[in-house]
Design brief:
about 220 residues; mainly beta; 2 domains; four-stranded antiparallel beta sheet; three-stranded antiparallel beta sheet; elongated
């Protein structure tokens, strides 16, 4: 069943609170301002929806949900559901890591009817160099940054995948070619049709550092910032 959402911001004791109301999509399409509609039960077909709201400062950590099933991150406006691929399950609770800015929200759906990645296993731990995941054709792809140490991803099946994400070695740059665009007065000062002459000057600078305009002798040229 598809749902859409409406956020209501309520001021309670001087603190802004958020009350998220889910509606059946068909009901929401027929809704009119000022008319109250009963929200649809969110545990349809055994699926559970949880609304997460950060009422504090920026925070990073793990949230323990009293729910099981494959977790998804639904988009309240489009209905699209993105699989959450990294989580752990223990004693009937699901633990998911989040990084939330102040007043940032998340919606988490726990589906009892389908797997989040069409796969029996999911990621339960990964190295800090892993930037995120995406799912394509039932396969989970990890996006990892270059790191001096190997990148590891541990699956719920017990298998650990190790990736060699060594970065490129440092490259020394030198012997620069600089093209200077400068504006010179017209050859004929009495020619009102010509405002200025633009000329490009090509310079070769040796070494690993780019010299300043003063060292190059063009600090007073028009067009040089």
């Amino acid at each position: 069943m598809d749902y859409s959402a409406r956020c209501q911001f309520i001021l309670q004791g001087g603190i802004a609170k958020v009350d998220l109301v889910f509606w059946d999509k068909q009901t929401a399409q027929d809704a009119y301002p000022g008319i109250l509609y009963e929200p649809t039960d969110l545990q349809d077909a055994g699926d559970v929806y949880v609304y997460v709201y950060n009422d504090g400062d920026f925070s990073t950590g793990s949230i323990s949900f009293q729910a099981t099933g494959s977790p998804f991150a639904p988009d309240a406006w489009t209905g699209e559901e993105t699989p959450i691929t990294e989580y752990s399950v223990s004693q009937g609770r699901t633990n998911i890591s989040f990084s939330l800015k102040s007043t940032e929200t998340r919606i988490v759906k726990f589906s009892a009817s389908r797997n989040s990645a069409n796969n029996e296993s999911h990621v339960i731990w990964s190295s800090d160099s892993v930037l995120g995941y995406y799912v394509d054709s039932g396969k989970v792809w990890a996006k990892a940054a270059a790191s001096d140490s190997a990148t590891s991803v541990k699956l719920s099946s017990g298998k650990t995948v190790t990736l060699d994400q060594q970065g490129q070695s440092q490259i020394s740059l030198g012997n620069w070619s600089v093209v200077l665009e400068q504006w010179l007065p017209p050859d004929n000062l009495y020619d009102v049709e010509t405002v200025a002459n633009k000329k490009n000057v090509s310079l070769s600078v040796s070494g690993f550092s780019i010299s300043s305009w003063k060292d190059l002798g063009y600090q007073n040229s028009s067009g040089v910032a």
